[in-house]
Design a protein that fits this description.
Blueprint: E1 2-7, H1 13-22, E2 26-31, E3 34-39, E4 54-62, H2 70-81, H3 85-92, E5 103-110, H4 117-132, E6 145-152, E7 155-161, H5 183-193, E8 200-203, H6 210-217, E9 221-226, H7 229-242, E10 247-250, E11 263-269, H8 282-296, E12 297-307, E13 318-325, E14 334-340
Parallel strand pairs: 5-6, 8-9, 8-11, 9-10, 11-12
Antiparallel strand pairs: 1-3, 1-4, 2-3, 4-7, 6-7, 12-14, 13-14
Length: 363
């Protein structure tokens, strides 16, 4: 068994854990933005995880990292004691890598300390250089091996990135639009919907098409649109880069040119009236948009919506199934999943909205 951990957006830890379990991983503890697991056999398929921002081999854990500057000496000493050769051998099974690679260090910490992230990286790099003789680069993009250090209180976690680049860095995402989603958050919406191959899927406010492309990569029959012609062009370009087929057109999401009950799943990053301005009364806009999504949704369909105004989401026959608060763009928007309103279903957020921080919860 190989110990690994994934990084994800804050709030999506449980969603990422679901996907990891589908990949056959034995998920263990979860922490701030982290999901730990044990993997068996070939690790190559794990590089296809769509909701993880990055994936690391777990190398070491330390428990003596203080908040004073003397901790930098401790980090330098502990870095010199690391054995990174085993991690290097695992990575070499997945991608070409030199036996004496150029390495970079990424560091994050929680809580106040009398030293900076740059000083942490320099101290750890000095220890690794002294013991391994490898060349260090401050530029992660120029390095073949990334060493990641997390410090929380006195505890520290050390990992080595499994892939050559972070998983969230999709090569297809060349075109950007204001408010465009990170691909891993888009994938999380689809994971929460449990979108199946061959299922019809709609994003009525598609922007640069990130959700549509992720849906098509998952096997969904993806269609969508936007009221901005530039966004439509960006979505088509990104889909072409990804080698997937999507149907996109310019439209007003409040008046969709689609038949009643024609769509199995809907997901959208709704306008927040920040980077993407709503040119109408916000309450009325959301009401019209929700009514139109409900009209085109097939019986038994599901909807997942991301917005910073979940209290404005109101449906007639759909009920809230799941709700998560995440951290994004310096805001704390909410993902809400809806399904058919049955006797045992939950109240709609229009009458009572519960937001759960840091994980998945059910009402």
């Amino acid at each position: 068994m190989t110990a690994i951990f994934a990084l994800t957006t804050r709030g999506l830890e449980s969603v990422c854990a679901r996907e990891m379990e589908r990949f056959g991983l034995a998920v263990g503890e979860m922490g701030y933005r982290r999901v730990h697991a044990q993997a068996r056999g070939d690790l190559r398929p794990l590089l296809a995880l769509s909701t993880a921002d990055d994936l690391f081999l777990e190398v070491s854990r330390w428990s003596t990292i203080g908040h004073t500057r003397s901790a930098l000496d401790t980090l330098r000493e502990l870095g010199g004691q690391l054995d990174l050769y085993s991690a290097l051998a695992v990575c070499a099974q997945l991608r070409p890598i030199d036996r004496r690679p150029i390495f970079a260090v990424t560091a994050n910490f929680v809580g106040r300390r009398n030293y900076s992230s740059d000083e942490i990286k320099a101290a750890l790099a000095a220890g690794i250089q002294a013991s391994h003789g490898w060349s260090y680069s401050e530029d992660d993009g120029a390095a073949a091996l990334n060493v990641r250090l997390f410090i929380e209180h006195a505890q520290a976690l050390v990992g080595v990135r499994l892939g050559a680049t972070p998983l969230h860095r999709r090569s297809y995402k060349q075109e950007q639009r204001p408010g465009s989603l990170k691909p891993t958050v888009a994938a999380a919406l689809l994971e929460m919907l449990a979108l199946r191959p061959g299922e019809t899927f709609l994003d009525p406010c598609c922007g640069a098409g990130t959700i549509l492309v992720e849906a098509a990569r998952r096997g969904g029959l993806a269609q969508g649109g936007d009221n901005d012609a530039g966004a439509v062009a960006a979505a088509l370009s990104n889909a072409e880069n990804a080698g997937v087929s999507i149907a996109v057109e310019r439209w007003d999401a409040r008046c969709l040119p689609l038949p009643d009950g024609s769509v199995g799943c809907i997901a959208a990053n709704l306008p927040w009236n920040r980077q993407v301005v709503i040119d109408a009364d916000e309450t009325l806009f959301y009401a019209q948009l929700c009514a139109e999504m409900e009209r085109v949704l097939a019986p038994g369909g599901r909807v997942a919506l991301l917005t910073n105004r979940p209290e404005l989401l109101r449906f007639q026959r759909l009920a809230c199934r799941e709700q998560i608060e995440i951290s994004l763009f310096g805001q704390r928007p909410v993902i809400t999943v809806y399904g058919e309103n049955e006797e045992t279903s939950y109240d709609t957020p229009g009458s009572q909205t519960n937001v759960y921080t840091g994980g998945v919860s059910y009402r």
